[in-house]
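Quick one: co-fold with adenosine-5'-diphosphate.
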Amino acid sequence: MLLKDPSLLRQQCYINGKWCDAQSKETVAIANPATGAVIASVPVMGQAETQAAIAAAEEALPAWRALTAKERGAKLRRWFELLNENSDDLALMMTTEQGKPLAEAKGEVTYAASFIEWFAEEAKRVYGDTIPGHQGDKRIMVIKQPVGVTAAITPWNFPAAMITRKAAPALAAGCTMVVKPAPQTPFTALALAVLAERAGIPAGVFSVITGDAIGIGNEMCSNPVVRKLSFTGSTQVGIKLMEQCAPTLKKLSLELGGNAPFIVFDDANIDAAVEGAMIAKYRNAGQTCVCANRIYVQAGVYDEFARKLSIAVGKLKVGEGIGEGVTTGPLINRAAVEKVQSHLEDALSKGATVVAGGKPHSLGGNFFEPTVLTHVDSSMRVAREETFGPLAPLFKFTDVDDVIKQANDTEFGLAAYFYGRDISLVWKVAEALEYGMVGVNTGLISTEVAPFGGMKSSGLGREGSKYGIEEYLEIKYICMSV
Ligand code: ADP
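Sure, here it is.
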């Protein structure tokens, strides 16, 4: 990995403004998912180091929250600029540890930076309220204050954006934060810490710890100093963390799994729907929590959609993310490949037909062919489980009410998409879908200006937008007798 600024690649953690090794000196090697080659190593930290990072966050809190919003905003703004100034290096680092194509990695750096820019601005807009008193001598005011020390646990599919989407609103609100990145993608997280340090964010305000997920997680959840945990990852782990946080009653933001339906109605613009499906399904090799998982196509356009989607999928170029023109990188690891393979075999055994791809890629390793299946039905695993890979199952439907029912027939409720043009149908379906985010005639819904989050087993809370900062604020009401 040839970085313009090699000092961005760190093999130590960032705690209380210092770069440190694990107390045990233990390290773990991190491999490139495209080649299996070792990139570098990071410390294996655990409970003790997490405790120290939390203590530092507590110590840093009073001075950080005492700054004016404008002062905090200015430091965040500098952090934002540094992400952009170093976007080539950050993108290359991300592609090397995560696998996504370089163009997507660059897109993620811009997206990650956008949260810092947004919340640097929002810091100044944490408004309170005045309420007419309930008695003649009473005056009532509502103020908002930072919740305090916070912790974040993040996944590997968006190594930069999942951190900034949490850290930016936390820091803007006046909170401090300790972050545990995913074990697969520590280097991007540590590079963000380098840039935070350069931006003048004070010691202890933002720390990054790598290592033993369970040891770090236990301390984050049980330490009473931590007043809030923000997690993005699987529903299974989210539930566990919620249980672990219960005794100290922490505030929680949980952005968990999805099982997104993508519905194409007869009156849709099919070319636009295909374009949307390509983004919603195959971005990041199908490894996003808002990826289209179940594609429902109305009978009148099913064949046309299947044909056009297969042609588009045939044009995807699979390869190492740094390769010229590559659109689809490797999956994150062997287990991810096996899950796609098992969903595929289950569907084929129950009567599905492959119309594009359909097997592990000839490149071997963690590469899988972008795949399209027809003749899919609700008895198959693809109908119920998140595949998290480049496999598009096409379900055929006829009735609108029936497809809404099928779309909602899942424990998840993160993102949903549909394509149609009849205005009454659009409103009816948009309102009926039990999802936190609905894309209508678009396959790309993520932006820092809108609230990202889910219903049901997809989680709690919203990230981004004017709502995102509320997750890091307490409401205090002051009743004054005059
Ligand atoms: P995925 O299957 O996509 O890796 P996970 O939910 O397992 O999703 O992981 C998301 C994040 O949660 C990662 O940073 C991982 O290390 C962390 N994690 C997993 N299990 C635990 C746990 N028991 N306690 C704390 N963090 C955990």
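If it helps, Residues 102-122 form the longest helix (21 residues).
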